[in-house]
Each structure stands twice: as structure tokens, then as C-alpha cells.
Write a structure and sequence with these properties.
Layout (H helix, E strand, L loop, with lengths): L7 H7 L1 H14 L6 H14 L3 E5 L2 H11 L6 E6 L5 H8 L3 E5 L10 H12 L15 E8 L8 H10 L3 E5 L7 E2 L2 E2 L6 E5 L13 E5 L2 H10 L22 H11 L2 H19 L5 E2 L7 E2 L5 E5 L2 H13 L29 H7 L2 E4 L7 H13 L1
Helix pairs in contact: 2-9, 3-9, 4-5, 4-8, 10-13, 11-13
The chain binds pyridoxal-5'-phosphate (PLP).
The site of pyridoxal-5'-phosphate has 15 residues, from helix 4 and helix 5.
Length: about 375
């Protein structure tokens, strides 16, 4: 058996009895849409994160979409997003007819660079592309920011929240990769006006299919999010007060997630131990930069991502891992401002140099709570050998 990138089977074996009991209970009550498991999961996860409200939904992408819809985002709005993230972060902005304004990342954490963010906000407000590269869309109004907690580490919320307040922008935390992480004692999913996470199977808390959740302390937003996920429903059944989605979390997924959540805090500790072992294995390896978790942050370790000194060196390492039968991934090979779909926004090569460089040099190794020291040694040997 090879080393899996993510090991869902070992996890499943640990909670087999509870999983089947939870699924049996749902099969017995037959409330497959809006079943009682949804409310239970929302309450447990909100309490875990320290958020007042949680709203389950169909995916992390829908969570982001609903957050923007709740804020009334539409054509003419500029939403600031990092260019180095999964596509969904910017996709939802454009789906609503608004314009993503891409911002470069911090070279150490790969998260949104607050200094670049401030320049980008001013550039849009003053319509001055000399301050920061701007999309070729005129008359934009700065509306909001989506900060991403890439690889499991929270973005710089101290700095980003100040900028959001100063410029009157809403802030969404894209916590799809960081559920279980924390910053200065506060859990991820508790930052911004709305935080959004994903239960895609490979995420730190993954289901057996798609799912997601919004978190907020704002009672008004909570009510709108609940309506949005259910076709913009009003107080009465078949009364619709806004345009919404069929964006509900599935009852069976909630039943599965409730079982998985019982061992989740322990798994976050196991992920940290795996990351620590990788750090020890790679700390003296020449030409490789380790992932850096800043003081005050605890990563959820969705990914363990190294930086090779040069693109050529990364190619050699990827070839070496492939030859050894070890899975590897690149998060992400193409920054969003250079994606074909966003070509009409006119961002040229070199416009956001830090993420363009990182895209050519990062690579992610197998990461899951059940990775053994022996398997990690085998991974390290293949990387170092290359
Ligand atoms: C996975 C992910 C999403 C989308 O979540 P889905 O549940 O797959 O829709 C959004 N943003 C980031 C940063 C992600 O990693």
C-alpha cells in the first residue's frame, strides 16, 4: 500500500460505530432535508469556534456566495481577494457580477498582504492604478474583503480588521482550510462579519461529500443567511422575500460530521505532531523553506507546504516523489489573476509578483492525522534524494 495524501479510511475505522449509529438514526427519522442533525451540528461548531450563530450550507463555495449575497454584493462593487487561493474565493465575487480586485500575498505566510491590501483599496477609491494593479473595470466602489486562511493558518486579522473598519468595508473570513486553527486564543471562523468553512472530504473537518457552514455574531446576518440557503424564504412557507439558493447542508452529511467532530480536537493535535515531525526532517535540507506559523497562530494544518529554492528544484522533487510513488500536490499552480477566466480583467504577468513566484515553487506533501513517522521518513528521503 502506498502513502495516501489524505487517509479517510483510518479515521473511519476509529469512529465506525458512531458513524453507523448516526446514519441509522437519520435513516429512521427520514427527515433528509433540514433534519435535526443540522441544528445539532450548527450548535456544536458555533460553540467550538466561539461564534454566536452557525448556518450549515451545501458547500464552502455556497457559504462564500451566501456571505456576499447577505452583504448585497453586486455589479460595480470591488471585493478585495488574495490572488493565491482556491478559485472559489474569487469565483463567487464574479458570479454576483461584482469585480474581484486581486491582492498579493505575504511571502512568509502566503496569506493576504495587509500593506498591498491598503494600497489596493486606495487605488480603487482614488481610481489610481499607479498605486496598485487594478482590473480594467471603471467606476468600482470598494465594498468588502475576503481574507483566506491558507493551508490552515489564519490571515493577519489584527491588521486586516483595522483596514476594513477604516475604509468601511465588510470582512469575510474564508476559513475553508482553517477550521480548528486559531489566532491569539481566538478560533478560526470567529473573524470578520461572516466566516465560511468547507466540509469537502479533504479539509480538516471533512464530510463524505460536499458541505459548508457560515459563522457570524450578527443576528441580522444570521437570519438572512438562513433565508438565502432556502430559496430566500420569508417567515411563511412559499413566501419568498429575496433571491436565494437551494444551498442547504444535507442531513446525512451533518450526521457524519457529528460523528467525526467527536475526535476532531484530538486530530488537530495529531496534525500538529505530523507537522512537527516534518519540520524536524526538513529543517537542515538545503534549498527548502519550511512552512512558517507566526507566533500567536495555531495552524489547522490543512496542508504541509514547502517552498523550493527554484522552480527547477521543485520539478526535480516532484519527479523524485513520483518515482517513489508518493503523492504530492501544488496549491496552487496558477494564481487567480492569471486564470483564463479573469483575462478580461487585464492583469498582466508580473503584476502580483510574490504569488506568481510562489506558484512556481510551492508543493504540498501528504498530510493527515494518521501519517506515521515511518511514512514521513520515506517522504523526506524521497524529497531529499531529489
Ligand atoms: C475548498 C475551498 C473552498 C471551497 O469549498 P468547497 O466546499 O469545495 O466548495 C473555498 N476556499 C478555499 C480557500 C478552499 O480551500
Amino acid at each position: 500500500m502506498g502513502i495516501p495524501f489524505v487517509d479517510l479510511k483510518s479515521q473511519m475505522n476509529r469512529i465506525d460505530g458512531l458513524l453507523r449509529a448516526n446514519l441509522d438514526a437519520a435513516l429512521n427519522h427520514c427527515q433528509f432535508v433540514n433534519g435535526p442533525e443540522i441544528t445539532r451540528l450548527e450548535q456544536e461548531l458555533a460553540a467550538f469556534c466561539g461564534a454566536k450563530h452557525a448556518v450549515g450550507c451545501a458547500s464552502g463555495t455556497d457559504a462564500l456566495l451566501m456571505a456576499l449575497m447577505a452583504k448585497g454584493v453586486g455589479p460595480g462593487d470591488a471585493v478585495f481577494v488574495p490572488a493565491f487561493t482556491f478559485y472559489a474565493t474569487a469565483e463567487v465575487v464574479a458570479l454576483l457580477g461584482a469585480t474581484p480586485v486581486f491582492v498579493d500575498i505575504d511571502p512568509v505566510t502566503y496569506n493576504l498582504d495587509p500593506a498591498g491590501l491598503e494600497r489596493a483599496i486606495r487605488a480603487v477609491a482614488e481610481n489610481n492604478p499607479g498605486l496598485h494593479p487594478l482590473p480594467t473595470v471603471s467606476g468600482l466602489t470598494p465594498r468588502g474583503i475576503i481574507a483566506v486562511d491558507l493551508y490552515g493558518q489564519a490571515a493577519d486579522y489584527a491588521a486586516i480588521s483595522v483596514l476594513a473598519k477604516k475604509h468601511g468595508l465588510f470582512l469575510v473570513e474564508d476559513a475553508a482550510q482553517s477550521f480548528g486553527g486559531e489566532q491569539n486564543g481566538r478560533k478560526c471562523c470567529a473573524f470578520g462579519n461572516v466566516a465560511c468553512t468547507s466540509f469537502f472530504p479533504a479539509k480538516p473537518l471533512g464530510g463524505y461529500g460536499d458541505g459548508g457552514m457560515c459563522f457570524t455574531d450578527d443576528e441580522g446576518l444570521d437570519e438572512i443567511l438562513r433565508s438565502l440557503r432556502n430559496h430566500g424564504m420569508g417567515r411563511e412557507r412559499y413566501e419568498h422575500v429575496r433571491l436565494g439558493l437551494n444551498g442547504r447542508l444535507d442531513t446525512l452529511q451533518a450526521a457524519i460530521l457529528l460523528a467525526k467532530f467527536t475526535i476532531f480536537p484530538e486530530e488537530i493535535g495529531l496534525r500538529q505532531a505530523v507537522a512537527d515531525r516534518y519540520d524536524a526532517l526538513f529543517k537542515d535540507a538545503p534549498g527548502l523553506a519550511l512552512p512558517t506559523v507566526l507566533p500567536g497562530n495555531r495552524s489547522a494544518w490543512a496542508q504541509y507546504t514547502l517552498l523550493a529554492e527554484t522552480p527547477e528544484r521543485r520539478t526535480r522533487i516532484l519527479d523524485g516523489l513520483k518515482a517513489a510513488g508518493i503523492p504530492v500536490a501544488i496549491h496552487y499552480p496558477m494564481p487567480l489573476h492569471r486564470q483564463p477566466v479573469f483575462a478580461p480583467l487585464g492583469y498582466g504577468p508580473g503584476s502580483l509578483p510574490v504569488c506568481e513566484d510562489a506558484a512556481q515553487r510551492v508543493f504540498s506533501l501528504p498530510m493527515h492525522p494518521y501519517l506515521t513517522a515511518d511514512d514521513q521518513a520515506a517522504v523526506a528521503k524521497a524529497v531529499k534524494g531529489a
